[in-house]
Amino acid sequence: MKVLFIGGSGTISIEISKQLIDKNEDLYLLNRGYRNDEFQDNGITYLTCDINDEKTVSNLIKDLEFDVVVDFIAFEPSDIKRDYRLFKDKTKQFIFISSASAYQKPLADYKINEGTPLSNPYWQYSRNKIACEDYLMKLYRDKGFPITIVRPSHTYSNKSIPLGVHGDFGSWQVAKRMLENKSVIIHGDGTSLWTMTSNKDFAKGFIGLLGNVHAIGQAVQITSDESLTWNQIYQAIADSLGVELKPYYVSSSFLDEVGPYDFKGGLVGDKANSVVFDNSKLKKLVPIFNATIRFDQGIKECINNILNNPKLQIEDVEFDKWCDNVINTLEKAKKSLN
Asked: Least packed by Cβ within 10 Å: which of 101, 164, 323, 332?
């Protein structure tokens, strides 16, 4: 199978790329080449350019056709329109990576499947993904463009700790606070349900959709079946670090209002909501799929890798100060009311 990935080295796509390499599939990566050293010398065909340089891309693919083209880095309808111009006669299947954050917020039913309405008034990112889906479905209906839409939820790799509240430079500073015996902010009261999916499990489901005729014209979500409270998530992280968890609970709306971080989309419009995913559609399309990596297992591998790789330990001093300020301010407010 000849597969082209636009991107191919991100949190989700890197594991898919590695598993396709292990299967000896004919993999092409179209990207700017910044992280391709992850793959070393393994027979991948690299098309090194910016996808937005349509003229260069057209020249690179003029003699090529693909069984599957996947765009991991399309975020707005203009990206999809560009992809259609480039690949409408070049592929038997086009896969767009959408987002489970596009599902209805607030939810009418905590259990989510592909029939759950798409509507997120809190997050422009999600609204853009919805607009992309709408445009692709129109192309499928009107032009016969062979699309498949994939909706990931919170998918993690071994390079970053998945969290609810963190700063602009990633999640390491929260782990550092835990290691320093400091309190860490958890949104709400930590009891809302969430789903964490290892990118290794995600890749298994995703690869089963490649070249799958039954997936054409379909939207499919790929997540673990495991439901966890945020308290359980943070406890698993603390356990993997070998430290005591000291949670400090703050409402999601308060965190958004006191900025400078934009928590309206990613928190109020996403992670603050309880979600449980029904993956029966995926399992019908890919009968062998089963997410087998429990979060407490996957997070240990993730944290061990980060602790052994200083380059992944990116400090965020401003976020650390902000956490202290939020906690200290709320503690003073409590005392003033006693």
From this structure: 332
